[in-house]
Amino acid sequence: MQELQPGAAAALRAEEEEDGGAGVEVAAHPPARRGQRPGRLRPLLALRLPRLPAARREARSCRGCCCSRGKAWRRNHTAVAGFRKLLEDCCDPGQLFVMTKLNSPMGKNLWFDGEFLYSFTIDNTTYSLFPQATPFQLPLKKCSVVGNGGILKKSGCGKQIDQADFVMRMLYTSDSGRRVRRGNSFGWLLQIHVYCGGSVQMDALRCNLPPLSSEYSKDVGTKTQLVTANPSIIQKRFQNLLWSRKAFVDSVKVYNHSYIYMPAFSMKTGTGPSLRVYYTLEDFGAKQAVLFANPNFLRDIGKFWKSKGIHAKRLSTGLFLVSAALGLCEEVTIYGFWPFSVDLHGKFISHHYYDNVLPDSGFHAMPEEFLQLWFLHKSGVLRMQLEQCEDPLVPSSA
After folding, report:
1. Number of domains in the chain
2. Which residue from 146, 148, 139, 142 is spatially nearest to 168, judged by alpha carbons?
3. DSSP E strands: which ranges in the chain?
4. Is 390 domain-assigned?
5. Strands 166-170, 383-385: parallel, antiparallel or unpaired by DSSP?
6. Counting Cβ atoms within 10 Å, is residue 83 exposed (0-12), middle (13-18) or buried (19+)?
7. pLDDT band at residue 207 using 50, 70 and 90 as cut-offs
8. Using CA atoms, how far apart are residues 205 and 228, in angstroms rounded to an integer?
9. Is 364 a known active-site residue?
10. Are strands 109-111 and 119-121 parallel, antiparallel or unpaired?
11. Can you tell me the distance from the alpha carbon of 15 to that of 10, in angstroms, rounded to the nearest whole number?
């Protein structure tokens, strides 16, 4: 995790004010920079953004990403449509985001996207667990994708998040055995496990079963249409649902009538826990329903971002989810995505909004992912909320 120097934070704010924060159109493939090897096509939007050794250089590289309460930011409808077309051509989120009876017929052979040597054949039992078609009324209108970053703490963004038509969140993944950041030690703010997910009509998206108690609702809201759950969390926190079934059902009640999005067919070890989640919720008559991530979609999204310059063992859950939202929603705003140990005002913040436990390092390319998201924000494709949100109850001055 990199530290953003207080001085760099101030520079970010000053540069944004100077720049105006307006969205800009970006050519599909900008001209090559001096010294670039001939014949090598630079990735769209990323412009081959490098891994930067110092956080100050990182901050300067993403100048303009931080707008004061989003007042200067403008949505670029042309850029939004163009990026959605790219996603449709490569990955077709509207049809492939979840496994359905239409895209995964009985007898079809699919490869696990996380284990290239293993495949599975959809049998009658598995086929019966899929919805007939994608259960969202597409396109979704306004969507919120909610990460777990500490920048959400005391943000007052809960009401703004809940005003969306579709809210996606990521499963709460804290593990007491992991290291905790203290002071200004290094670390990335957002723990995003491998599948944190999504956005239906003016709702919000949240990542990996995050806590939504009254203690946090003012900052992160309570509305949820889709929440991602990594099978490893089911194994660790709920003993694979072999004898903690009621505890699991009680823990997801806070998400009301929402979908739990699980990568059942990414790794062989994740299939059993994911299917047990489905059967557990069904047995208890829970309000939540399970949707299974389509391994073809996850594989295609990974290839898409790799072609844009992100090199990692695997994309983060957050980037998977934001990608899906951009393909499913007309307007996307993301919260809790901020990879520094201080906020824009130089104040140290916790790793998550609910704790200060750091994730395992080296699996995801978080600097590269953040800079990609920043450029999408700068281009007007999505809005990245980094400052405190305005309280809608406070009347604006005339």
Report:
1. 1
2. 146
3. 109-111, 119-121, 140-146, 166-170, 203-208, 226-228, 259-262, 289-292, 329-335, 383-385
4. no
5. unpaired
6. buried
7. very low
8. 9
9. yes
10. antiparallel
11. 9
Count of H helices and E strands in the chain? Answer: 13, 10
Residue 207 tokens read as 């990542």
d(CA 286, CA 282): 6
Q: Is 148 exposed, middle or buried (0-12, 13-18, 19+ CB in 10 A)?
A: buried
Residue 311 has a pLDDT of 78
Domain of residue 102 covers 6-29+42-385
Q: Is 34 a domain residue?
A: no
Please say whether the dihedral angle defined by the alpha carbons of residues 341, 308, 319 and 168, taken in this order, is positive or negative: positive
- Residue 342: the pLDDT is 83
pTM here is 0.75
- The residue whose two tokens read 């983060």 is 316
Contact 166, 226 (CB under 8 A): yes
> Cβ of 162: how many Cβ atoms within 10 Å?
18
Separation CA 69–CA 80 (nearest Å): 21
> Is 36 a member of any domain?
no
The verdict on residue 346 lying in a domain is yes
- CA–CA gap between residue 197 and residue 67 (Å, rounded): 25
Catalytic residue, from 193, 352, 364, 377: name it. 364
Please determine, for residue 208, whether its predicted confidence score (pLDDT) is greater than 80.
no
CATH number of 348's domain: 3.90.1480.20
Burial of 215 per CB tally in 10 Å (0-12, 13-18, 19+)? exposed
